[in-house]
Amino acid sequence: MRRREFIALLGSATALPITARAQQSERVRLIGALMAFAESDPAGLSEVTVFRDALKKLGWTEGKNLRIELRWGAGDADKIKTFAKELVHLQPDAIFSVTTSVTSALTRETRTIPIVFAVVSDPIGSGFAASLAHPGGNVTGFTTNEPAVGGKWLGLLKEIAPRTVRVALLFNPATAASLQFFRSSIQATASSVAVQVIDAPFHAKNEIEGIVAAHARNSDGGVIVMPDAFFFNVPNRNLIVALAARYGVPTIYFQHIFVEEGGLISYGADFAEEVRSAAGYIDRILKGAKPTDLPIQLPLNYEMAINLKTAASLGLNIPPTLLARADEVIE
Fold it and tell me: What one-character DSSP code corresponds to residue 188?
């Protein structure tokens, strides 16, 4: 072999490990994401944008070193279960999960693939983790509520609509967060403000009107729309807002999007902040961290929104002290 050919061959062999290392550093990582929203929902699209932007700022670029398989559950329990199976079958490096029902569906499909959740009320009671500080399995993330929030909802409803003495807790058992998580704080507040609380489960969309109508027969009824993936669907969300307006029932919601769409009042965590933080946990997992070593975190901020036009249509005079505490007032 000639000397020049030998040197060329040696140079090519020496360069191979460098090329291999470069290819490895650019390996495309696969993330699954299962949203409770419908694909056409502006609120869901906004959260996906927040998630993607947060990952990009952390160095993950779709089409370069990251691929995201995104699915939309549209608040439908059966659809959520189907997509959970589908995503787990893809064997992604991690899965981003939004809401309790979505996370529950995913945990039934895998105990090994890392899952990072957002907008979950009771991760311990739901069986997702052993404790907040030490999750102990393949699931971690960011909770959207504390137990005391239940009492806060009832207290705010009574404050904005003082005549309220009967309150229905509206939820779909197939998609809602556990009522037991909020039960004691709701009952404690109910006792202190002399309000009767009634569970109002529904299993189909056409059952909701009957519940709202029943609480409109007297002028003292109210509704708390409990955290529920069912309402992460625009038609379902619009339905409850429209029914509350039609029957004149003061209603409080768990997220400000309801108030922007005509609801009376809401109180809940900042979903966008949770999604942004979840992207940070995904980044750490892709870099080698394990979910069991990443503590589940509680909300840092809660937001209250009030719709003045809706309040006026219900004949409610909002106390100035309540308005002063609102983070968002829609006129």
Answer: H
User: At 207, which amino acid appears?
Assistant: E
Cα–Cα distance, 92 to 22 (Å, whole number): 22
Phi, psi of 67 (to 5 degrees): -130, 130
Q: Do domains 28-145+270-300 and 149-269+303-330 have the same CATH topology?
A: yes
pLDDT in tens, 233-244: 899 999 999 999
Q: Are strands 29-35 and 166-171 parallel, antiparallel or unpaired?
A: unpaired
User: What pTM does this model have?
Assistant: 0.87
208: confidence class by pLDDT, cuts 50, 70, 90? very high
The string of pLDDT tens digits covering residues 94-140 is 999 999 999 999 999 999 999 999 999 999 999 999 999 999 999 99
Please state which of the four CATH numbers 3.40.50.300, 3.30.450.20, 3.90.1720.10, 3.40.50.2300 is assigned to the domain occupying 28-145+270-300: 3.40.50.2300
Can you tell me the distance from the alpha carbon of 131 to that of 293, in angstroms, rounded to the nearest whole number? 11
- Give exposure, 246-271, as e/b (b: 16+ Cβ within 10 Å): ebebbbbbbbbbbbbbbbbbbbbbbb
Contact between 145 and 181 (Cβ < 8 Å): yes
For position 300, what pLDDT does the model report? 86
Q: In the chain, pLDDT over 70 holds for what percent of residues?
A: 92
- Domain 149-269+303-330: give its CATH superfamily: Response regulator (3.40.50.2300)
| Closest residue by Cα to residue 94 from 297, 281, 296, 292 | 281
Place of tokens 């309150």: 167
Q: H/E/C letters for each residue in 66-96?
A: EEEEEEECCCCHHHHHHHHHHHHHCCCCEEE
Q: Is 147 helix (H, G, I), strand (E, B) or coil?
A: coil
Q: Would you kindly state where each structural domain of the chain is located, as residue ranges?
A: 28-145+270-300, 149-269+303-330
